[in-house]
Amino acid sequence: MSEEKKGIEIPTEWRIKRYFLYALVTVIILVLPWITIEGNHFFLLSFDKLKLHLAFIQFDMQELYLMPFLLMIMFLGIFGMTVMGGRVFCGWVCPQTVFRVIYRDLIETKILGLRKRIKNKQQEPDMSKAENKVKKVIAILLWTLLSFVAAANFLWYFVPPEDFFAYLADPAEHMTLFGAVIGIALFLIYDIIFLQENFCVYVCPYSRIQSVLYDEHTVMALYDIHRGGHIYDENKEKLFTKQKDLQAVEPHAECTACESCVTVCPTHIDIRKGLQLECINCLECVDACTTVMGKLGKPSLVTWSSDYEIIDQKGKTKYFRTKVLGYIALLVIISIILGMMGSKKEHMLLNINKENRLYSVEKQADNKVRVDNAYEFLLQNTENHDLDYFFEVIPPKGMEGKIVITKPSEKFTASPNVKKKKIVVLSTTEMLVDDERKDSVIPITIRAYAVGHEDKIVVLRNSTFTFPRADIIKSAK
Question: Among 319, 322, 340, 374, which residue's CB has the most CB atoms within a 10 Å radius?
């Protein structure tokens, strides 16, 4: 009987939707390092130049206080995703899964025909045939090439492409980078070709923490035992291998025992056994059962749902529950904090140290006494091009214009990523404080700015100007 007569419409397979997402994510990850705005990348953690690029804004390594917030967003995002959708990250985003799909489904199955069907992941190719041995070598060579591309792509987020290829052209001077490319590529070759899904099952720590995050409303691939019947007992021992034996005990059981959901599983589990840490929520078993049961005019026995709805049958799954809303709130709060802190980026860095000598006093030709305070300014240009800089003094109210900069007398140039040391002298010929007993410490503010960019590239630093006792002023020579 046709599907139309049965009234069951088989939806687009989850596998196809995953392929589209994989393609989109791959393009974004490959292209993003090449996109720059005013020389800044979307994300770049450069240990070479001690820079952090975030959302096309460049930060100095002294502003790495932003990194903890990025890490919190990443981990909270993954944990929140797990609370809501189980190991959906593993099946839909994780590079390990994407790479395995590229190698197994695309290279081995579609391109080379080494595997007969995508839907049978349990049957390994017959390597006794000479033809298959040649295909296996070709598959390894193709993946080796892609491994080097993936390794380079990963490193582009630490060494931008414009520097990466220039460095590789001179491997003797950049052995660390050269070794990193080879090391990452070799790991990917071993992982994807030989370790395979054992990485997900035995190596990845994420599978061990998922059970802590799950609750009864967590959405995952689940077998409906109420409709399908009990294939396994409480000890996870298999009871039936044929439908007729199952229906002899449970006449209502709909499971055909075709095991399509088993043969298609990349981590080699039987979803009918219940929740297992090896399940990566790829939903291939859902597709398999949907196809088989759809031909019988029935809905799938394996669905993407929750224990609350399928196993316990208490009602509809609650997606936006308190725990999930808590994760969303935390992510929003941390994102706002990150945005606020990132918006306060300093386009130049400035440290001010006063020299050991508090001041110098000198009598001028017009009989005025000049008081000098000397400072060491350490300035760093955090932009991508040379800029001219200068300083000005902001004294307390009532002393405007009475303390001036006498050195340097002209603007000076600072190159990117180079710390520039300048000796700065502040002077006054005014009687700022008439105190016979002690020197006076006057609070001041130093305003440093890039000439022509005073509205954007500017920083303020608090400091002090020491004015001598009145008797020192009067005895000046």
Answer: 374
Structure confidence by residue, pLDDT tens digits, 355-391? 888 899 988 877 889 999 999 999 988 887 889 999 9
Token pair listed for 452: 């022509």
Place of tokens 């799938």: 300
Token readout for 57 is 């804004």
Instruction: State the CB neighbour count (10 A cutoff) for residue 286.
Output: 26
What does the alpha-carbon distance between residue 117 and residue 109 come to, in Å, rounded to a whole number?
7
Would you say residue 10 has pLDDT above 80?
no
Kindly list the domain boundaries of the chain, sorted by start residue.
1-34+86-314, 348-474
Fold of 348-474: Immunoglobulin-like (2.60.40)
Which DSSP state fits 171?
Answer: G
Measured distance CA(55)–CA(41) in Å, rounded = 7
Contact 272, 255 (CB under 8 A): yes
Interior/surface letters 206-226, b for 16+ CB within 10 angstroms, e for the rest: bbeebeebbeebbbbbbbbbe
Q: Which of 51, 50, 30 is nearest to 40 (CA)?
A: 51
DSSP β-bridge partners for residue 392: 447
Q: Calculate mean pLDDT across residues 447-462.
A: 89
Within 10 Å of residue 441's Cβ, how many Cβ atoms?
Answer: 12
- Taking the chain, what is the end-to-end CA distance rounded to the nearest angstrom? 114
